[in-house]
Amino acid sequence: MVKKFKFYIDNDICFECPLESNRCMAENNDGDQCKRRTVIGTGICWIHLLKFKHLRILNNAHGKGLYAMDLKKEPIDIIFRENEVITEYNGELINTATLTDRYQDKTAPYAAKRMGNDRFEDGACKRGVGSIINHGNSRQANARLSFSHDGTLKIRATKNITNGSEILINYNIGRGGRRYIINQAGVRHTTK
Questions:
Q1: Which residues contact 149 (CB under 8 A, 6 or more apart)?
Q2: Is the pTM of this model over 0.85?
């Protein structure tokens, strides 16, 4: 069944798209490409995400969240050290015109501004692992958006993150572009 993202303004669908589905790019122990498909966390399946990146997408009070996890370590063990890259954002590259066409003047729930004036990564249709990270206030946040030398949008730890901890970003810091408004009046989105 195809998962679909829908963005509503005043209960009218303003933008919708199917989530991109890809075959896992990782190799199994026998050297063959993994046969699993992935929609959320595009690129590698949940098993290889856990094995190679020490990340796990889990259900929580916000729907889903991204957690630091290594099954071979204790809960007090550090999985990501301060300033270490956790993952890439991996959204769809779009420009300001496309962002405005999709979301008008409202907050795009999965978009983050890249370096430069007219580039965004939107995780609405291409739901990369980085787009699953929930908001945390300045005390709770343990990660931030960061750019590599080539302009790639990454998630970087702002403090040591222990095994089993949810990775959180303060959406109002470093997103660039438009101000991010959480629970904006008249706006909602679904992925089903």
A1: none
A2: yes
